[in-house]
Amino acid sequence: MTTAVAPETDIVPTTVAPAIELKGISKAFGPVQANKNISISVKPGTIHGIIGENGAGKSTLMSILYGFYKADRGEIFIHGKKTDIPDSQAAIRAGIGMVFQHFKLVPNFTVLENVILGAEDGPLLRSSLNKARGVLKQLAAEYELHVDPDAIVENLSVGHQQRVEILKALYRQADILILDEPTGVLTPAEADHLFRILDNLRSEGKTIILITHKLREIMKSTDTVSVMRRGEMTATVKTSETSPERLAEMMVGRKVLLHVEKQPASPKDPVLEIENLRLVDDKGVERLKGISLNVRAGEILGIAGVAGNGQSELLEVLGGYADATGTVRVNGQSIDLTGKHSDGQSRRARGIAHVPEDRHREGLIMPFTAWENTIFGYHRDPKIQSGPLMNNAAIKAEAAAKMERFDVRPPNPKLAARNFSGGNQQKIVLAREIERNPDILLVGQPTRGVDIGAIEFIHQQIVRLRDEGKAILLVSVELDEIFSLSDRIAVMFDGQIMGERLPSETNEKELGLLMAGITDTANAAMPASPMAMTETELQEAAEAEPTSDAEAVPSATEAETAAESPDQEQAAAEEVPPPEPSPAGEDEPVEEFSTAPVSAPDGIPSIDTGSIASLSASIPMSAPSAPPPPTKTEDPEEGDKNG
Amino acid sequence: MDFATLLQVLDSTIRLATPLLLACLAGLYSERAGIFDIGLEGKMLAAAFFSAAIASITGDVWMGLGAGILASMALSVLHGLASITFRGNQLISGVAINFLAAGLTVLIAQDWFSQGGRTPSLIGEGRFGPITLPGAEAAAGIPIIGPIYAELISGHSILVYVAFLMVPLTWWLMFRTRFGLRLRAVGEAPEAVDTAGVSVIGLRYVAVGICGILCGIAGAYLATALQAGFVKDMTAGRGFIALAALIFAKWRPWYALYACLLFGLLQAIALRYQNIDLGAFIVPVQFMDALPYILTVVILAGFVGKAIPPRAGGEPYVKER
């Protein structure tokens, strides 16, 4: 390990050179200015968050730091020394390690082979492998980075693969670690573990840059945070002195409603009734083990659960592209589940619209234009036919109108779907499904890889549809989303419904237990012991869980990459230049860190409870009606903060 | 079938398997690095012609070998330029190389030698002769083992031994050295190699270069050892059979040896038993000649199981964030 900056030095901040200092970094791609005059300074031994919407230029900035792009202007200082980073090799030499959102691992190599790749000691492998084995053991003990060194990487869970990435960086003696959207693919338990690892790294004096668009993570784990918008750094503040609302406002440039405004539901008769639904997949594994549910008109039923516990299969069966046994009734009439007479189209004819979980593979055809994408599944609608041909002019006009109504940006129906950002792609899918006035809407992960402004809009649309008296089945792995949208919550674990709760009468902890397969009776009867199990249970549940949403990662990356250009061109054209006086100005903008003492590692700035509370304002978990947590031991959510 | 016949068939198996093995290993280096190469055939053909032509002009087979390797390397560099530097389609580039070689060799042969697209027959120093391994004469008397050593193992041209020694060498390079680790990585996940600070392009060119050298040896072996001179289309699809063997072997060196020996055996049997009289009818010679190719298809369709090619194979590497 390189000589890590001793934590004590933080006491005398003026003498410590920043671990990373960027001065006036600018980078343009053709006419698009991806980074405009960016300056930041990160103190050693801290976790610095960089937050911004998709396409704000975060990834470009980090790519410059890792030698993928050359900045047009600006200087980089590492530990006070001016450093040129023309390629990744130079970045590694400067002690920078990067954990990409889309892992850069060789899938069929062992962990050891991946770790030494490019950092071998000599032409023969044996000695390098032996050395790496020792180093890995040591790192595992030091930072809770346990991975079997001989495991083949593709057999590891996503969380473990990410650890391999971190190990790779540490093996190369990185003391500055950059993590790009690290939790996008992790289960909640895996994410908690990651943040524990990051805490450990920080207390060893490593500097960590965390790029994310999840406000919650920023609030939870960082010491300082910079906000990027439209290629510029709009503010840098101490995390303890800001709130999620203010960060969101700085990101988007306007006030954002972090909670969904909705009236209490007034549900009517059940529209979708599911009885004893069973599905066995081609490997003979029973994915759905007798699901019974019903969704009433005018309510949102949220299905919570760790990814891979049957939620996807449930959506597939209901959406008409997986076969199952059991009964599903729509408006009292049962529908065929054998696949012989059913497909997505016949389901749509029965009034079931479906916003699939993976919009890149199931929701859109990426190279096709937006207007073409607005009719898939409804392309036999007589209204858009003229004789044997399709009436393209009518489709285009309708698509343009829909895009207008759903605020798709840029509102250009001729653009290929892949050229829209994640949020705008999702709006296209949503527009297609909602505008057909379905009785039932199935929604899977509506806001995965979607930026905050679009999340707000999508949530509003879902609630609006509910208020029109439609039945909505929402599947999401984001517990926040489940809480803020659902009128009723069902928790799935291992292909079964573990229980149903009203959002006002439950909390994250209880749902977390259900998601780990621990039933409510145990929880109610003996509060202490099951709680002690929680963390391990959650951990196991998370780690044993198939890495089914791994697929979503590249797509999310693509989305962001693709988003960069059209979005920003758009931005340059229409948006007011960001140094807006009003909202950002109040937030003590860019701070000089050399004078502002930031926490010593053990004195993690206590995140003031007010901001947490306001973050979870969207989440009724702290609602007075919620039962007090059964015990104080080992809350998986807050464990590392209290400890 | 008596023992002597068996030995003869196996002996000819080894000779026929040699060019397949060299080409197969050539493909292994290239494809393990993520560059699909269906131009093996063309490279062998070019090497066969130039080795025979230069050997015939200079009278020195080693000059011929050198010329063959250079010709094959030139085509490799072309393939590299098209598919690595200019990120073109690797299949199209390979097809182009095959056509180029098929046409040019005959054209140049006619221009240089005016013998209807062939080279003059090679004699003496213009050919790789058999090497008698030490003790072969003496051992010949020992029953069973003696003839195996004297006839099967001894008495091949040096290129045969080169080919068979390439198998363990390739295995060792691939799985025990830094170079091999990086080469395999670049065929599976070039972005991992790139972010580790190693040049993807450099590695791929090296792989394509090794492929060129081995194809060159394979072609030279065909024209200067197996036969005595170049004739039109003399590779006769061996480059494609080598590719089939590579898939059959799942891109592994030892399996490549076994696969090539199997295909060599099929060719040897076809060569030896031209007409098989089954009493009721006679299996025609055409069928026997076609047999190796038919079996290639059958084996590939039925027995390979799931062959997973290097994941980044066929895809030009474009750096992304």
Automatic annotation (TrEMBL), chain B:
The chain crosses the membrane at residues 65-84, 91-109, 158-175, 205-224, 230-248, 255-273, 279-304. It is found in: Cell membrane. GO terms for cellular component: plasma membrane. One of its GO terms (molecular function) is transmembrane transporter activity. It is a multi-pass membrane protein. The keyword Membrane applies. Signal peptide: none annotated. Keywords: Cell membrane, Membrane, Transmembrane, Transmembrane helix. Its main location: membrane. The keyword Ribonucleoprotein does not apply. This is Sugar ABC transporter permease. It comes from Marivita geojedonensis.
